[in-house]
Amino acid sequence: MGRARKVVLAYSGGVDTSVCIPYLKKEWGVEEVITLAADLGQGDELGPIKEKALKSGASISLVTDGKADFVKDYAFPAIKANALYENRYPLSTALARPLIAKMLVDAAAEHGADAVAHGCTGKGNDQVRFDVAIMALNPNLKVLAPAREWGMSREDAIAYGEKFGIPSPVKKSSPYSIDRNLLGRSIEAGPLEDPMTEPPEEVFVMTRAIADTPDEPEYVEIGFTQGIPTSLNAQALDPISLITQLNEIVGKHGVGRIDMIENRVVGIKSREIYETPALLVLIHAHRDLESLTLTADVTQYKRGIEETYSQLIYKGLWFSPLKAALDAFVNQTQERVTGTVRVKLFKGNANIVGRKSENSIYTPELATYTSDDQFDHKAAEGFIYIWGLPTRIWAEKTK
């Protein structure tokens, strides 16, 4: 791969991405490094980031607020598709990657850069997600991944950075690798690499330990409009506020923790801990509302689509023809998914205890066992005869 003149680097402010700046310039002959930090709701981490990038040798340090786009254009489509990777993980970290890739590509166009770069290693999922998304958005851009090639340990990287005036981390580095955004946190490495080790309470920030949760249940009513969450307890909220407030409510009751062995894109298994309070509850509530508003065949067929959809997100194929085609299917199914779902939160559980919709196809007169019953019981006999005919013929011929 030919080296680049001007590079836009995805920047987190951590050791690896800081070291990428002098490394790209000194080792790979890059003339100019522009850093881009995406604000996706990671909170106070972004404070000193702008200054740090400039001190580390960046010519321009961009901090771009992507929170609204993140929820509206990435989280909401995933909720409509009930996307749970391996039926458990609601893709909180994976969903951020295509958006960051888009920001990099847009910044490269704006600043006339001929390449983009990231600090991912060769073992993780994120390198795949970044590289493939960037290829899909601009196949002519070079993608540089110094940390995939430099062969430095963390200690080596810190020492390399110190040579170029990058201060080493002040506090003793946490053994955990943590990624945070508005939708949740992912925690890996350190003692968690032993699948038998229970995650210590210190790794959790968004969800309370069960012992510290309220002793009374709390109910929350989530309103959806065409598959998109739009209100909490009958109060209309903008996308960021809805996620933020629901994270708070749900996390307080200890809901939203996931501990799983996950199959990575690169073929290895990894132990992952996630906290995704709001996202998990929203997907379960949304799926429940669908059971009230979608026909049986659409509901059942959509389950297979959801599995494929979650795989595409996880494996970095957000900007792909199949994903676009599935979006069209999902959006068509959502036209009638409007209504309210009532969730009871208590001691680590989020149980759906009620649902209503103007588009409900639940018919009380057909479902009831009281004297209001309008179902034609006599019609069942003929139906069963025809439905069971293949089984009867098979039995007669084989028994």
TrEMBL record:
Example of a GO MF term: ATP binding
EC category: ligase
This protein's UniProt keywords: Amino-acid biosynthesis, Arginine biosynthesis, ATP-binding, Cytoplasm, Ligase, Nucleotide-binding
Domain Arginosuccinate synthase C-terminal: 176-394
Pfam families for the chain: Arginosuc_syn_C, Arginosuc_synth
Signal peptide bounds: none
Pathway: Amino-acid biosynthesis; L-arginine biosynthesis; L-arginine from L-ornithine and carbamoyl phosphate: step 2/3
Domain Arginosuccinate synthase-like N-terminal: 6-167
Binding site for ATP: A10, Y11, S12, G13, G14, V15, D16, T17, S18, A38, G119
Localization, UniProt: Cytoplasm
Family in the record: Belongs to the argininosuccinate synthase family. Type 1 subfamily.
NCBIfam families, alphabetized: argG, PRK00509.1
Protein name: Argininosuccinate synthase
Annotated source species: Lusitaniella coriacea LEGE 07157
